[in-house]
Design a protein that fits this description.
Layout (H helix, E strand, L loop, with lengths): L6 E5 L4 H12 L3 E6 L2 H13 L4 E5 L6 H14 L4 E4 L17 H28 L3 E6 L12 H21 L4 E8 L5 H6 L2 H9 L9 H12 L10 E4 L10 H10 L1
Parallel strand pairs: 1-2, 1-4, 2-3, 4-5, 5-6, 6-7
Length: 265
Amino acid sequence: MRLQNKVAVVTASTRGIGLACVKRLAQEGATVYMAARNVERAQEIATELGVAGYNVKVVYNDATVKESYKMMIDEVAKEEGRIDVLVNNFGGSNPKTDLDIKNTNYEDFMGTVDVNLASVFLTAQAAIPHMAANGGGSIINISSVGGIRPDISQIGYGTSKAAINYLTKLIATQCARDNIRCNAVLPGMTATDAVNDNLSEAFKEFFLKHTPIKRMGEPEEVAGTVAYFASDDAAYTTGQIVDVSGGFGMPTPVYGDMIEMKNRR
């Protein structure tokens, strides 16, 4: 119960990593607000979790409407009188239009960068005054290994995540005197609906070939790192960019090929 008496907000929280974070923070004792565009679906989940004994509530947020970020934060602060934890989980791109530098339309590129960055910048900007007024807080940005390891596609997504990593350090630096910490969690290939629906089995196999822990991560494993950053166990930890990817990209670039050669012997 590391988060007892804490109030948390999690964006994009009706499935995948966001939902896993909601459950884990609630398990740790927090009052958790599910920020979602589909309020009806979020309320169904919150009701189910309430039956299980968790204190989960719902607040409206539409990532495509910038004004809704401040409205969301102000609504939670008004209702609870405080905000202690903010998990900026929203982010994505359209794999059909977010391609490489040669084939990506500038407007599509900037659209991806804008919405992903806005989801962190505007939400953090709105939450920081409330956190400072209550003696501090923790902001956790869900980034991606794609923000530190360049890919052959998704130029907008990778650029936005790299910017979020740097923004994380800026927030940590500029808000430390208010006892506000900011860290980023970088999932690798994680077993979410989005991954299963959009990536072929061949691509998954190729990706995992270069992952020392040779499996996809589970959303709950990402949520475990988020819970650590949200808690006082991480009270002296800020500005960190933590890779939760099973070691993807850590060893020699020919790691996957070397393992295959060794297995053939």
